[in-house]
């Protein structure tokens, strides 16, 4: 999947080089380690990839997390946080859905 994704992104980059240059700059800035180490960055990226449902991101960041020494247990813990946040978001939006229903014209 990573190879296919990289090839497809390469084709897009040929069509939109300025966009890709901006993305590269943003990714490089976010990847810079200041207060968090590279492994922690990748654990966060995996959790976010779950919440955004990005298969490509999962593939790329799982590989990067492993490269930076993340264990299966650490990844599972980060994913547990992602699951909790998705549940929390569903709860918040469920209350908003009920509010929308309650505010329909009678």
From TrEMBL:
GO terms for molecular function: peroxiredoxin activity. Gene3D superfamilies: AhpD-like (1.20.1290.10). It comes from the Bacteria. SUPFAM superfamilies: AhpD-like. Pfam families: CMD. This is Carboxymuconolactone decarboxylase-like domain-containing protein. NCBIfam families: ahpD_dom. InterPro entries: AhpD-like, AhpD_core, CMD-like. Residues 17-99 form the Carboxymuconolactone decarboxylase-like domain.
């Amino acid at each position: 999947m990573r190879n296919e994704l990289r090839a497809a992104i390469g084709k897009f980059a040929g069509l939109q080089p300025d966009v890709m240059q901006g993305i590269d700059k943003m990714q490089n800035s976010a990847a810079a380690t200041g207060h968090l180490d590279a492994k922690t960055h990748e654990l966060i990226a995996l959790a976010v990839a779950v919440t955004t449902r990005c298969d490509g991101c999962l593939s790329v960041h799982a590989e990067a997390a492993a490269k930076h020494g993340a264990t299966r247990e650490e990844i599972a813990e980060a994913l547990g946080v992602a699951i909790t946040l998705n549940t929390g978001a569903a709860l918040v939006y469920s209350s908003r859905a009920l509010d929308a229903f309650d505010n329909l014209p009678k």
